[in-house]
Amino acid sequence: MTWGILVGVTFMKLENIMDKLKSNGYKITEQRKAILEVLSLNHNNLISVEYLFDESKKIYSKTNMSTVYRNLEVLENLNLLYKFITDEGTALYKLRCCDKHHHHIICKNCGRTEIIEFCPINTLIELSKDKKFDLTDHKLELYGYCIDCQNSKDK
C-alpha cells in the first residue's frame, strides 16, 4: 500500500545510495538491490513494510521479510531513509529526498507530503540547553489538509 505524494524535490540517485552503503561496509546483494529498487520507484510515496516486501519479492523472489526489516534499519541508521509513524502506529518509509535538511507538511486526509525548508532548530537548541538537555536529533512534522482535501467533503 502506498500513502502520500512528495512534491517538488530533487531525489538522491540510486547509485549514490549504493555508494554510501558500500563505503560503510555493506554489500549490494540481490535482495538489497530489489529493496532499493522498490524504494526508488516509490520515491514520492510513503510505503509500508508489507508493500516493500511484496514488491521486492516480485523483483527477487528470495527476498524475505527479516531482510527487509534489516535493510530498513541500515538505511535509517545511514540517514538514507525517512520513517513516518501514522496515528494508528503503522510505520511508513521512503528514501530521503536530498541531503539538505528539511521538514514535512502532511495532509491528514490524502497523505500528500510537501517539503518545508524552514527549521526552528537554533531556537530549540537554546531552549534545550536551558533545560540541561543535549539535543542530538529532531523531526518536525506538520499536519493539516491540502487544498484539494479542503475543497472536498471527505475531510
Automatic annotation (TrEMBL):
Organismal lineage: Bacteria, Bacillati, Bacillota, Clostridia, Peptostreptococcales
Protein's UniProt name: Zinc uptake regulator, Fur family
Keyword Metal-binding: yes
Taxonomic source organism: Maledivibacter halophilus
Residues annotated to bind Zn(2+): 107, 110, 146, 149
Cofactor: Zn(2+); Mn(2+); Fe(2+)
GO biological process, one term: regulation of secondary metabolite biosynthetic process
Family under the similarity heading: Belongs to the Fur family.
Keyword annotations: DNA-binding, Iron, Metal-binding, Repressor, Transcription, Transcription regulation, Zinc
Gene Ontology MF terms: DNA-binding transcription factor activity; transcription cis-regulatory region binding; zinc ion binding
Keyword Repressor tagged: yes
Residues involved in Fe cation binding: 101, 138
Cofactor note: Binds 1 zinc ion per subunit.
